[in-house]
Write a structure and sequence with these properties.
Length: 160
């Protein structure tokens, strides 16, 4: 059975931003911050309440890579695949993590602990290969070091 989305979370966002001209991106950012992603039921209500066509809302969402239409894990793992990282085998690190977590790129573990993504470039080439977990950078990695880092995050989740 599908879980119901609490639409009341949307009310203060609409109240604060409804009258601002051109506030769609800001509204979507606030909604994603509140829900962790952009649930379909919320987007439908946003469309009705702001009289913005749903197609326009989805156009904005799909244009900007910051928006997500599916729930994401508590820990977001991003593996850089910029030139410096790529030539230093970042793809092997990403595949190792994907195999260990049982994920494909852009997927989330069933327990909602981890999501795995590839990033174009972090601008930290001197640390290549690099991955980020949430906002923490981890550089000069090999696959085992990457696994150890993820294990650390898993253990800290287990302790909470």
């Amino acid at each position: 059975m599908a879980q119901q989305t609490d639409l009341s979370i949307l009310d203060p966002i609409l109240e604060k931003l409804r009258s601002r001209q051109g506030a769609l991106v800001t509204m979507l950012q606030e909604i994603q911050k509140a829900y962790g992603y952009l649930p379909e039921a919320v987007l439908e209500r946003l469309s009705r309440e702001t009289q913005t066509p749903l197609s326009r809302i989805y156009g904005v969402i799909t244009f900007y890579s910051q928006f997500y239409l599916t729930p994401r894990g508590r820990n977001i793992i991003r593996v850089c695949d910029g030139t410096a990282c790529h030539v230093r085998s970042s793809e092997y690190i990403r595949r190792t993590l994907a195999d260990a977590l049982g994920l494909q790129e852009t997927e989330t573990t069933e327990d909602m602990q981890f999501s795995l993504e590839t990033a174009a470039c972090f601008g930290t080439c001197f640390l290549a290969p690099v991955m980020m977990v949430n906002s923490a950078y981890h550089g000069k990695l090999d696959p085992q070091q990457a696994l150890d880092i993820i294990e650390g995050y898993a253990q800290s989740e287990d302790e909470n």
